[in-house]
Amino acid sequence: MKSAPDLALPVAPLPAVMLEPLVRAALLEDLGRAGDLTTDAIVPNDAQARTRLVARQEGVLAGLDLARLAFQLMDAGIEFRPVLADGARLRPGSEIAVISGPARGMLTAERTALNFLGHLSGVATATASIADAIRPHGARVTCTRKTLPGLRAVQKYAVRVGGGSNHRHGLDDAVLIKDNHVAVAGGVRQAVQRARAGIGHMVKIELEVDTLEQLDQALEIGVDVVLLDNMDLPTLREAVRRVGGRAVTEASGRITPESAPEVAATGVDLIAVGWLTHSARVLDIGLDS
């Protein structure tokens, strides 16, 4: 079952009501019990400044709204003027935004803003590295629930910005039956039957399979998605052939930008990559005067 042509609209920004608690908590963590001792001691209260957010390496921009909130929650008098938008392809020296206003608030919020911006741009950049590599094969890259605590919504947003798709946002989105569920249930058939009996008609069922024998059971019982876990390329190709469009196929297991094209060439619909969110390298972005 190949993916439909990409007709998606640009990624919608997350509402501020979702972002503000994250940014506020990060600022409070940094301010501690006494505020910014360094800035308050050195910078006059009436000092004004004009700075720029600038990319220092290639990548994909994500998290601009969180950076803006960091500055404006710190001081409502700070003006944040974006030059680029999330999803922009960055080069070293790309100007991302211009920030002007009270210098104290700007310097105090700097690290929080850069932490969010660098991390989420890193997630988007990592996602794009795979999305770009597999595009000729029609497969899509998807993230997992392997997210950093408290950051799932924004990390999954960054995956979408980078050209990827989201898997479950939580345990309540869909059913994903893994090997431990099967072991406790007493077999694949029992696990699927119990899941089907316990959910609503709008909920999809995905089953993890490690072997072609398990796949045959899954196809006999009928599931919406099969997670083809840690299969070598010949086995993946055979699995896709056996599925024959009767379910969505998803490959997983230590997939990298280098190996992703070969995996996509087997014909799978989705490639699940956990490290996009739990281990993405921060993109280097700085605040320059």
UniProtKB/TrEMBL annotation:
The keyword Ribosomal protein does not apply. Residues 123-288 form the Quinolinate phosphoribosyl transferase C-terminal domain. It is an enzyme of class 2 (transferase). Keywords: Glycosyltransferase, Pyridine nucleotide biosynthesis, Transferase. It catalyses: nicotinate beta-D-ribonucleotide + CO2 + diphosphate = quinolinate + 5-phospho-alpha-D-ribose 1-diphosphate + 2 H(+). One of its GO terms (biological process) is NAD+ biosynthetic process. It holds the Pfam family QRPTase_C. Hexamer formed by 3 homodimers. Belongs to the NadC/ModD family. This is Probable nicotinate-nucleotide pyrophosphorylase [carboxylating]. It comes from Bordetella petrii (strain ATCC BAA-461 / DSM 12804 / CCUG 43448 / CIP 107267 / Se-1111R).
